Amino acid sequence: MNNKVPVIKLNATSYFELGKLIGTKLKERIWGVKSFYESLFNSSQETIFKAVQPFSKAIQNELPHLFEEMQGIAEGSNLQIEWIVALNSRTELLGLFKNECTAVYFKDQGILAQNWDWAKQLESLIVVLDVTLPNKRFIMLTEPGIIGKIGMNNHGLGVTLNILLSNQKQYGIPFHVLLRVLIESDTLDYGVQQIKKYEKGKSSNIIFADKNLGCVNLEFYGENLFINNSIEPVWFHTNHYLTVDVNEESEFQSSFSRFRRVNELVKQAHSLSIEQMKDILLDRGNMTLPICRTYIPDEIIGDAGTVCTIIMDLMNLQFTFSHGSPLENEFETIRMVNNEV
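Structure (tokenized):
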């Protein structure tokens, strides 16, 4: 088995302890992620640290337990806390990429999945964290140092992420931290109520679904949060807005192309299953702008393409992921047994 994306099991009694474990065990990977984003920020450390001050203050005031985890990561990895906040605020600090990810949900089957499309350089750095805290367990694929990303918990709730581009000001709780808030929620309704506290100042999309076949699509656009309680048998999202007409297709060709191709494949599907989900997310039917992308040169981030595919069976509490690009690597499945923590 190619272990390019390792599974790291962590058991902690506090958020600071969890952070310290992450920082210590994944120090080299965290430094690698930090180096990657430092080059993208293309600013002095002083400028970056100044830029993250408002985000740091918001997290510390509103979600102090997660700030404690970041402090633990900083201590364990021997990095300044400002760098850990910067990694978790990378979407807000960058705000310039429009072709990242395809997410799909099969409602009646409780199968939530996505391709994570980004920089090849991160393929050897990402990990799957299998975390146990008091009365909580969640599994999440993430960039080490970032505390929230694509994942599910022992209550059968899962989240996906699609970066959206807008000209709206980015502020408040960083988007990746919001993902962590949802991953730790006990119910769909509770998670949505929590998100409403911090909804402003974002530009991205979350599909939030549960094992009881509920699905809420959360599309953030600056001061607005558009909530769609989907009743469709299949819901999917790429990297353009569905609720506000702000993205021109000429500038978002990959996103519109992938969206149309998913729609075609769903209509052609004989059944909706994990294997059918793989067929959709690994599809290269449109070779010019495919759903699953080989790495091609990008002038900003180096080689860019599909870094990993994640499929979550929320009803059966199974987390399946590819060990890097799904075109070249095998899948592995982690199973949560009997809602255990």
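The first strand starts at residue 7 and ends at 11. The chain has a mean pLDDT of 94.
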